[in-house]
């Protein structure tokens, strides 16, 4: 053996270590890949060796290679091997490698469960620490489920180092296994007040992370956090808490009011910028949540804005950035206070830092008003020209468009200005937002009717100008604009000054270089233009012009007929044939214009994007029903080309004409003509129509002619050197217009004032221009998007269904001390590591042997676990949902009863599926166990506190005080039906009450704050003890099998030596037998499936079959084991007596009071009674004891009288009526098996005589 | 939550990567490249926050980084972390490295990636901040290093000897590695 080690280490001398590998790679710069591949070959060789040191070294190198991008998942098994090394050095290497390359689909992960569990309970805190760290990176749902309980135990570890790690990792566990949240929450909450600041910080961290996603569930923690906030000095903790409050305030404005003051104090006092910033942020959140409720919060806003200004003015770019970020939050609710800092923000646009510029841009978005829009956009346009780098320029472009188009063009007073801005933006080269500009043009032209003429004129110049065609021909490039231009010119061609010229421009050969979808629009709209041209020419006597137009079409269209793009080709050839036909008709002197333009008649209205979705399904229409039977599979192939086609079509998303019938068409045409006549044509060949305006108020005095003169209709590219770019001229015009308007208004106002001198004060000061003063240049009717009738206004909830945090939306309030809505149900208990006796019995000696066995075993086991769990889970789910429904129904009732004092709650220790559930302390050392126990007590209190309300006290009615017999009770129930209903539902929860998943069964009853708490109780009683080992045991019945009981024995190693090869044997009696694996003799012992290092305790379970359960009995047994220390190993044995009480055959079963009453009435039960003297404890303690130790549940309690129920595993009913007066307690009992009843009563007596 | 921690040098060579969310190796390399691309073109006097790359994160995520001499320390975090807090955390981490390696330089990170990981593990665990007190971090790291040394015993000694001999081949090192001024200078910052 020693030789082997020496040999191994000599071998290792020649292996490369990590440093050698790194050096090698650096020396082979030219052929790095080749070098690494030889290294990987070497590593593979090393991994084949037995020496763990060699393996660890190899794994360490693999971790480095992983960083360089090499997939090392093939070595996953070796990594597991290194992880399971007993040496910390190697273990750490293994866990590091695992944390770098394991993930949920790594299949060897399931082999690690036992290893990790072992490391978690290692006496060396660093082994535990390394395991926790590693686990935090690769925890899977399976691992989370299997290890949740172990980690929860670690949360109460003696070492703060482990505690904080355990607390942090719980968050990961919650994410992967949401069921663990409820049982673990009380302890997590407790850690908020841990004496160690690190642990406290970790707990705050986890709760903040949880609360961020589901804040409403954590509102009840607000007072606790408030206390922490005012007491803590740790900035990390403070920041986290303050951030959390930011998330909570929107849900509870009252909290916000309380927060303002301490936060303001912090803002004034702290020197840490990070804390200051978070405080400001939260104050903002508070103010937002209060926005209306508090009158005097302007001081707080002022303080925030002022502090933020300091941040923004700071030379530190980070502070500047954050200041702007926070500013944008204020902007949403208090734009006025931010707008006063416009100068500062505009200044930030000149910052050299792009992130800061972008932030400033964001702010501008919210700062615009009708008044300053033009000014701001002008400034942005300057930046567009200056900007280097297309990304920032594109960002500017989209921002300009965003700013202008926000809330349905709310701030635009002059659309001509906006169109010219859009046209100017087309000059941008290399932008990727051509599409955006195009859609804006389309949108404005369609929705703002008054602007169409102007838009059409601009678009026509755009089309005429070649610069759009010279740009790059990429999709989304600037050429997209020509899509919009062509469509606008075609659709609104009646506004065109010179349609012939535009038509010619649209049919230029160069157009063929445009992307297909744009060409298609060109072709189609050329046809529309053609119709318009024909119409204007037909009136003339000379028909040659019309024929020339047709000729032009016939000459140019063939180019498009040859297009490779289907859409273009199809449209072109269709239109070509049409034009040829028209030409024929023209030659015969037939008037065709009317009919040709009818092709394109019809009104266009924008449709809301969600309109289709919102069409309500008519009654009686089942969309899921087959219209025809589903086609056979072969047909599906035929559909594929169709799909491609439709996809293609939607991509172009051309606005479609709405189909209308003939009459409607004619009507609309009329209307359109009418409207055309009424439209304000700003630019038109004949100025005669200028005088016609839309009869809108406030527009009369707009000097339209002026625009005509001052704005030459040329592409800005050309106008630029004439002085101002076009949009600027509009700015000027607009200013003039406003001035005039103002003057006019003043006049009017003066008049008014003169008229009404007695009137009470002026409405607004006409000095500074207020928002309302500005009337838009044209009262544009911005057509709102069409929605189907009866459309539902609700917005769809777009939450990601895959969000892992959704599962963590768990109501935790009831776990608090105050409100006990819903205690932990047993279905919610953490699965506890249990050595299932049945399984152990089947394969004794298989476990706890060699390490290899240990690693292979879990595979088998986990498979089985899964199956079992799935089944179990299903049941649980069903139960849960049922329960929750009931709970909901009941919530408000329970709330009312909150006020009443709750009292009796039987802790229910047992339930279905007992064989799966085990309570055992999984602590690793005696010392630790002590802490666990200590820590457990308050937890238990919390749990029981939570239980209190589900069993509310009856109102102290004199009437009720008198009613003590069960018969009377029934009467009363009839009388008060409602009351009964309530109780019934509440009682339904009883069987869900369960002890905390931790090690102790010290569940106690309704400890209301004013009542004294219960002493801790445990059902585990001493089995036997010597200097080496201590055994305690508990017996539980098995509901599924009336002849089985499970004995859980906790073995605790009390000495400094290792205990192994433990064998548990019992001398069977006729009545009770230990279940042994098949094939073994009736006197063979059972191997305990684990070994015990010093100070460790563990639990094993053994199944016994019993025939008769009416009598208690004792079984003699022996435990043999080997005590092994460094020098020697000795065989030891310990005798014990297992006491099967009748109580242990009882199973806590809830019972409704009506069923209970029926049972008593049936007369099948035989009575017996018992009197206890000198019982000196509160009644609820008494009940708790009976419930806990004897597996009863309370059916009903009235004052100091209570009825209780339990059932044996073989179905015997046991009913108790417990009355207490002074120190005397009388118990009347009924049971269908008198012998058993007698024994149970004896045992109860025994319990109370002990205390 | 911290989603990832990346350390790479001025040329984009990774020195330590730590993802707290699974990505394939290829994706990890892409993210490093993208992050390097985003970070490296920024001046030293601009702010240290970047609204995340496209590969990692999304709208809720930010890149928070610091540039020390030849190395970039990049943390990818979501909105639950305080930006300035994370900046301070990076500082704490670097100062810890400085203490543990005694005047840390890029070479330390190159040759002792594993040790850097172990130090990081004491600072951040599973994407959540574990400890911010430098003395506590250093203390824990040192205890673990002592444990490793004490375990080393027989099997590690020869390897150490060999490694020492290999290192004796001195002329090779300066030739390949420009030690120059790659010392990470830890500027003293205002208290957190």
UniProtKB/TrEMBL annotation, chain A:
Location in or out of the cell: Cytoplasm; Golgi apparatus membrane
Major localization class: cytoplasm
Acidic residues bias locations: 783-800
Membrane topology: Peripheral membrane protein
GO BP annotations, alphabetical order: anterograde synaptic vesicle transport; Golgi to vacuole transport; neurotransmitter receptor transport, postsynaptic endosome to lysosome; protein targeting to vacuole; synaptic vesicle budding from endosome; synaptic vesicle membrane organization
GO CC terms: AP-3 adaptor complex; axon cytoplasm; endosome membrane; Golgi membrane; presynaptic endosome; terminal bouton
Chain intervals with Basic and acidic residues compositional bias: 639-675, 731-746, 819-839, 865-884, 953-965
Pfam families given in the database record: Adaptin_N, AP3D1, Mu_AP3
Comp. bias (Low complexity): 918-947
UniProt KW Protein transport keyword: yes
Recorded coiled-coil stretches: none
Ranges where the record places region Disordered: 623-694, 716-1014
Keywords associated with the record: Acetylation, Coiled coil, Cytoplasm, Golgi apparatus, Membrane, Phosphoprotein, Protein transport, Repeat, Transport
Record bears the keyword ATP-binding: no
Domain AP-3 complex subunit delta: 660-813
Domain of life per record: Eukaryota
UniProt-listed InterPro entries: AP3_complex_dsu, AP3D_dom_metazoa, Clathrin/coatomer_adapt-like_N, Mu_AP3
Family from the record: Belongs to the adaptor complexes large subunit family.
Free-text function comment from the UniProt entry: Part of the AP-3 complex, an adaptor-related complex which is not clathrin-associated. The complex is associated with the Golgi region as well as more peripheral structures. It facilitates the budding of vesicles from the Golgi membrane and may be directly involved in trafficking to lysosomes. Involved in process of CD8+ T-cell and NK cell degranulation. In concert with the BLOC-1 complex, AP-3 is required to target cargos into vesicles assembled at cell bodies for delivery into neurites and nerve terminals.
Protein name listed in UniProt: AP-3 complex subunit delta-1
Protein species of origin: Solea senegalensis (Senegalese sole)
From TrEMBL, chain B:
Entry keyword set: Cytoplasmic vesicle, Golgi apparatus, Membrane, Protein transport, Transport
AP complex mu/sigma subunit domain residues: 1-147
One GO BP: intracellular protein transport
Superkingdom of source: Eukaryota
Localization terms from the record: Cytoplasmic vesicle membrane; Golgi apparatus
Membrane topology note: Peripheral membrane protein
Gene Ontology, cellular component aspect: AP-3 adaptor complex; cytoplasmic vesicle membrane; Golgi apparatus
Matching Pfam families: Clat_adaptor_s
Annotated PROSITE patterns: CLAT_ADAPTOR_S
InterPro entries: AP_complex_ssu, AP_mu_sigma_su, APS3, Clathrin_sm-chain_CS, Longin-like_dom_sf
PANTHER family according to UniProt: ADAPTOR COMPLEXES SMALL SUBUNIT FAMILY
Function, in words: Part of the AP-3 complex, an adaptor-related complex which is not clathrin-associated. The complex is associated with the Golgi region as well as more peripheral structures. It facilitates the budding of vesicles from the Golgi membrane and may be directly involved in trafficking to lysosomes. In concert with the BLOC-1 complex, AP-3 is required to target cargos into vesicles assembled at cell bodies for delivery into neurites and nerve terminals.
Family, per entry: Belongs to the adaptor complexes small subunit family.
Protein name as it appears in the record: AP-3 complex subunit sigma-2
Upper classification of the organism: Eukaryota, Metazoa, Chordata, Craniata, Vertebrata
